Records
---
Amino acid sequence: MSSEGARVWIVPDGFIPERSTGGLESHEAICVLNPSRSDARISLTFYFEDREPVRGEGVVVPAERTRHLRTDRPEEVGGAEVPRGVPYAVRVESDVPVVVQHSRMDTGQEALALMSVLGHPVER
Amino acid sequence: MSSEGARVWIVPDGFIPERSTGGLESHEAICVLNPSRSDARISLTFYFEDREPVRGEGVVVPAERTRHLRTDRPEEVGGAEVPRGVPYAVRVESDVPVVVQHSRMDTGQEALALMSVLGHPVER
Amino acid sequence: MSSEGARVWIVPDGFIPERSTGGLESHEAICVLNPSRSDARISLTFYFEDREPVRGEGVVVPAERTRHLRTDRPEEVGGAEVPRGVPYAVRVESDVPVVVQHSRMDTGQEALALMSVLGHPVER
Amino acid sequence: MSSEGARVWIVPDGFIPERSTGGLESHEAICVLNPSRSDARISLTFYFEDREPVRGEGVVVPAERTRHLRTDRPEEVGGAEVPRGVPYAVRVESDVPVVVQHSRMDTGQEALALMSVLGHPVER
């Protein structure tokens, strides 16, 4: 089962909404499943429109566990600071194959909206 | 037509919202199409952030039928209990090729939101 | 450019909501792009949970055109009658490669929700 | 890293909603990540139901940058005019591999809705 997934995933549309309404905070999560029997060590590269990429390092997803990493919490994405209200893209690299999905909750305007995509798998 | 789809599918972002408003209940569904001429016998593995995986067994999707399995109903997912309000991921394994999509309805904050992804196909 | 896309696409999660609020009607669309220089002739197979599949035939997507086919309008899906409020799945088959995306607008509970997936490509 | 992504991407379901409510304008964005070390030069072909395709040319996504291109702003999509309220599809072609995601925000009916798909990759 160790070869399920890919080592590199890319998600082009990242954007943490600035505003929230109601009790649910606008946020995004990079959802990783590690179905293998080995822990996965993950690094993240955040790309922007007008500045150099920013790296987050040393995120661990244990064997047979999932982690849903909030991009607005630097401690969950290896120390990277991702500003709100700014378009970004993200590349996820793992030392063992994983599967990556990216989801957004936007409560910026009464009620809430969700969107989600599986990343684009690159290296198998 | 028996080779359309894949035997293993992975969806990293599972989360059954705790709250519902209005007449529609927050829920998720694992939607399976079996386009083949043979019944499909399906097992599900649910992965969590901080506990061992949970298995559901013996779900049948008949030949040339679809089933939309509610993850909050153990009787629809082979007996697995998936708690609300907890991040999870799911791996679907079938004995014949199928196609898997995962959708969420969230009515946790006035109005409703939907999200949906096709799973990541692993073994063909 | 005639090989861009696939001849068979599958979408497991179909569901035309029964209720609508406001001015926008709940609906789904099967969005097809034919980027080739030849007209595409398309047939659709709708699968259900508890009845035989239903076929729609003879839908044409002209060369270098897109069509967004409403599943609640039999005249747009080759004569197939897809009931509201019933889970279904759909398989799209074309005589030339096309690209297929499936989207839902749900206005069943104040405000509106959208979801969309690219189909699962089968034969290239 | 120059081979991550694809040179051609297709998104069948484009539609810029005509109405907006609240402070957020209904819009779509073609989100491109160029993870390579070379600038990407991009052309876009917009397909319609009842008219000839329209081209946009000369969009640049610099090396290691993302751009989220609003389809309602001709200056962001190489000069192409995409009307609101009309179904379209889009094909993105790049001279270096990129990754393409397409997202819609619809605020046409109180509250907001989001949908997003990764494009269908064609040439690697």
---
Amino acid sequence: MTISMYQASVPVFVRTLTNLKGILAKAMVHAQAKKIDDSVLLAARLYPDMFPLARQVQIATDFARGTGARLAGGEPPAFEDSERTFAELVDRIERSLAFLRSLQPGAIDGSEDRSIVRAVRGVPYTFAGIDYLLQFALPNFFFHTTTAYAILRHSGIEIGKTDFIGPLN
Amino acid sequence: MTISMYQASVPVFVRTLTNLKGILAKAMVHAQAKKIDDSVLLAARLYPDMFPLARQVQIATDFARGTGARLAGGEPPAFEDSERTFAELVDRIERSLAFLRSLQPGAIDGSEDRSIVRAVRGVPYTFAGIDYLLQFALPNFFFHTTTAYAILRHSGIEIGKTDFIGPLN
């Protein structure tokens, strides 16, 4: 037995984006209770030249949608990067989840050797599907979802790793 | 075609731990140039009740070794959590890489359905191998490696996402 490209991609993205949605919901409640404007936390960052929270969530959802779409041989729907509230970030995640759930396992399975061209640091790079997923997309996806978590944790939101890992099946 | 449990585990851990080693090496050079004692950065954290840098690296390496070993049907070598310098953290990563590289693909392939019991939040939980890897081990591994990066970035070390993602094959 082996595992399929679908198993190693879409459900992994769905799980962690669902958990991230819960983390943002907790942050929204915290902000309301403390009378912190959403814009303050959406602009929070760990260092002046790092991306702020909103951008981390945008990039994470883009990696999830883009990877699913490209492994299936298509292109993802483009989303405008215009979120200004937690509710809008949650909505972006929900739209991304809906797209991921629309992808058929049969369209992604067998994509190990599919050529996928992406700009990496500004230069076009041709990946085999398996390398695109395991060497590039998953590390990037977890990098940005974890950084979103870290920004909120650093901002005093009461979340823990359990929120990030989520319930087990 | 499909992908194997080995492909989705050991090379993923090896790649990101190798990159983390490079990140710690940059932090070591920075600390020496600025005359910052290693202990200051190893104890740095993003919030008072979060684990500090050294612990993040310890846990990340433990997840990598433990996952590889358990998918292969064994137990990982236990490492003492005693690192006090960047050189010692780098050495822990190197010992973890040597262990990962000693694992035979044939011992891990076919472990999708292997029962793996782990304490999750203090309670024994029985995973199928595929769920252990994709739902638990990879998210935890990337959570702790990214948090280690984030602590150093927040501490002013001049690193970027390229250091985390690393060179592509």
